[in-house]
Amino acid sequence: MSLRTMRAPRARRTPRATGRPGAPDSASGGPGTPATARATRAGRRGEGAWGWLFVSPMVLVLGLFLVLPILMALWVSLLRWNGQSNPFSGQADFVGLDNYRALLTEDGLDRTLFATALRNNAYYVLLTVPLQTVLALGLALVVNQKVLRGRGALRTAFFFPSVTSSIAVSTVFLFLFQGSGAVNSLLSWIGVKGPNWFADPRGVLSLILGGLGIVDPEHPSGVLADHSFMGLPWFEWLSGPSVAMCTIILLSVWTTSGTFMLIFLAALQDIPRELEEAAALEGADRRQLLRYVTLPALRPVLFLVLTLGLISTWQVFDQVYVMGQGAPGNTTLTPAFLSYSAGFDNADFGQGAAIAFILLALILCLTAFQRWALRERGARTRRNR
Amino acid sequence: MVTRTAVAALATCAALLAATGCSSNFDDSKEPAQDKAAKQNLTVLIATSGDAETGAVKAAAAAYAKKSGNTVTVEVAKDMNQQLAQAFAGHKPPDVFYVNSDQFANYAKGGSLYPYGDQISDADDFSQQLRSSFSYDGKLVCLPKDTSTLGLAINTDLWAKAGLTEKDYPKTWEDLRTVAGKLTRDGVTGLVTSDEYQRLGVFMKQAGGWVTDADQKTMTADSPENAEGLSFVQSLLKSGSMKFAKNVDTSWGGEALGKGKAAMTIEGNWLDGGMKLDYPDVKYAVAPLPAGPAGQGTLAFSNCWGVAADSAHREASVDLVKTLTSADQQLAFADAFGVMPSRTSALATYAQQFPAAKAWVDGSAYAQGPVTIAGFDKVLSQFNTELQSLRTADPKKILADLQRNGEQAIAKGN
Question: Which of A196, A329, A344 is facing B388, going by the closest CB pair?
Fold first, then answer.
């Protein structure tokens, strides 16, 4: 079944006549003559009312289940609320920005935990997003080859991890990466003694530095140990993802690259053949074709994939919940899980909400930065996407 | 354009207010109206350890229902903390439920528990440590469901193979060090236990220390006694005669004992059921934990039977709890899923019925109850996190962190 559905888009594809990839559609709704303008405006007003009427179910649903809860959570983040009273009746203490202060400026356990969670998640994002994007692009390029045999089967195989429940995959990974599990048995065949993956809190970077003899990971000293930022010594910030976190990174790269492969594949098939043919006529070899034709044409999709990746990796929760709940040594703690645990384990829902809003702000900032970094440059200024 | 935005904003605000006002579950009334009907419907929420426990609680509830004429529905929670938190927030909690000692103080502080301790005429029958763990503001809030203490479980085959006899069961820390060293060889580690204060805390207790003072008002974590206890553990870890369960590829001490990876472990009476189920052929004995510089010490664990402050059936609920914590019922539970009765009177009978559990029963005389301070969950889990690296870390630093984090949490709670 999947073979057929995977092949269908290509069969239906019709060669496009002309047009640069990603060029905006012709401008719609150009200005009319003054005589018709008034009539149009009146008609538009009627249309507007009808429009609101038609979208009102969705607006209601979104408002009730999305906007309202977000605003309620924003209010809760300003309270010290234990979850056992009505947060809107004044029974919970209003503490202003105290929850945010405890997380960002006040020295204490809350800030240390939050900083640790941010550190872990930053390394997770830094590794997962590029890896999954490159892997997805690579896979898409491979299965887009017309000469490749068994393309349908490959596409299905690559896409399969994405349709499997993340909880199930996480559980399987737990077994694979046990100290005496399948992965370590495989490694032992080539003479490598694998670590006890999920019980290993040592940071990968600190292991490398320790291996090079620059730092002693067990007794850090000097500048790195003496200075700290947000309650966490520099050494901790720089220690890199732990071995356990690397396993989670591997898992998420493996599960998500299939989805993004599909997105890339769709975009690849939208690149007009004529462009490639023209480039080939100009004497471009395969690498130049990829560099100067394919990749520029994929830019909007690349932005989409990076943005989706960035957002979902900053919100990683289910893998952490199943695989470690922060263990070992708080190295798989992430802000999303910390928010959950602040609410449900520590009965401090205000702080949980505050964590969620800081995370939201962080994601918005990073996405804005990414948009800026991936903007169109040079003389060919086009209308913004 | 500006007016349209303003209108939209106003409409949104009005809608939000309406929606907030209409949500009936946020309706607060100080005292819930009590149901006066002759027959009442009670719901009980439990976090079960397995089918045996679920079955035993259901049977007990059914027996009570038959006797009293009320109906009782027993539900099993998937994620107790989350389900209870949501139920409390929605003011629709179950009438009777298990309260984990980690969460007890949070719920008691939030006023979600109906303190029924003063209605129990024979409350003195429950052990003093557990009663103080489940008291808030000096009032006994809920009755301990059962109790468990820690003992030293020994794999008797491995013990004999190392040339040791029953006389060699360790009485002191030095004995423990010696036998652990002798037992460690060929893939067997002398002592294996979990890397958490719920096990390692016994050494702090045996050295004469503990996390807090007796009435849980001040932190006493950074005491020299605690440091002595953890340093002793550290010396065992460094010598290789003691390892944490995760380092020998097991999830807890019982698994290490059953798989023959550990000759000794520190576990409570739940070990019995686990061994019977997973490793029925492994022979083991339970000895009291060795005494430290300050004498014997162990830890006691328990849940309590909470009655919801929001319950409309408080009287019937307390009645149900009285039945569930009666001496006979506790003995029935002990028989069904291997917990120890929390009543001193029932404990004596239990000791006669299960002579193999003598070390655990005796332990309850000198056991330390769980820490129950509001907002302490994260403090203690941070302590556990730091204990994971006890082999290489400085025990004094770990305890200083615990002291600081605990003091902050206590200050925030008051």
Answer: A329
